[in-house]
Design the sequence.
């Protein structure tokens, strides 16, 4: 129903591309308002405008979904000055992954991810919250000395993407959507061709912070704009 697996299908190919929005608008929010019960969601935050939903894919994968209609990463509302920072809200909910697995996880073991417009199956913005692929923390550690706030080349799986190192308090003032929009002169007009992943990391000086990865669409190079491939819905990293 609302499974969002690793898929390169377009929204028109989904059995019901509005499934997530229907769950949010017709079930979770009304149930929360009328009965104080968020089901089938795990949480409804009406004040800040998002819900948390357990995905049926994986033992510990959750989704953050806005309670307003937003199609996805390309939604222009996300770049407005007063836009909610859904990434900060999602990072606050990362404990749910460890809770579902019965053990706490390091920040580097958890990732937040959003797919490009061409690599998603739903027409409602949603951020995946799940385990990182087991090899990623070590691979990203080579960037622990990168300049803060600067996009740097990231060699990964035979492709060249971009990574930005962020301080531990970055989400208090910075929004990954806006950082991606400023990556190049034309990025803001092509947000639908971007895919983003945010994960934690420990830097050379011992400080904790974040790595933000941008994986744009480039079909000629076999790059489908799905940073979800950097997550592991089986959570091998926790075993």
Sequence:
């Amino acid at each position: 129903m609302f499974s969002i697996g690793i898929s390169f299908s377009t929204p028109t190919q989904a059995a019901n591309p509005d499934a997530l929005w229907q769950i949010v608008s017709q079930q979770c929010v009304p149930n929360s308002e009328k009965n104080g019960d968020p089901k089938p969601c795990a949480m409804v935050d009406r004040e800040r405008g998002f819900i948390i939903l357990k995905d049926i894919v994986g033992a510990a994968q959750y989704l953050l979904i806005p309670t307003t209609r937003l199609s996805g990463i390309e939604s222009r509302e996300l770049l407005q000055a007063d836009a909610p920072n859904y990434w900060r809200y999602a990072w606050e909910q990362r404990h749910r992954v460890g809770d579902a697995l019965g053990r706490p996880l390091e920040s580097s073991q958890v990732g937040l991810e959003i797919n490009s417009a061409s690599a998603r199956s739903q027409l409602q913005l949603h951020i995946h919250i799940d385990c990182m692929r087991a090899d990623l923390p070590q691979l990203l550690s080579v960037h622990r000395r990168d300049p803060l706030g600067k996009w740097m080349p990231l060699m990964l799986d035979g492709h060249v993407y971009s990574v930005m190192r962020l301080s531990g308090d970055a989400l208090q003032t910075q929004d990954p959507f806006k950082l991606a929009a400023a990556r190049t002169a034309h990025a803001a007009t092509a947000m639908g061709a971007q895919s983003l992943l945010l994960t934690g990391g420990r830097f050379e000086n011992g400080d904790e912070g974040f790595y933000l990865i941008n994986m744009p669409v480039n079909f000629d190079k076999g790059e489908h704009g799905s940073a979800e491939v950097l997550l592991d819905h089986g959570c091998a990293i926790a075993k």
Remarks:
- Confidence is low (pLDDT under 50) at residues 1-12.
- The two ends are 28 Å apart (CA to CA).
- DSSP finds five helices and eleven strands in the chain.
- The first strand starts at residue 43 and ends at 45.
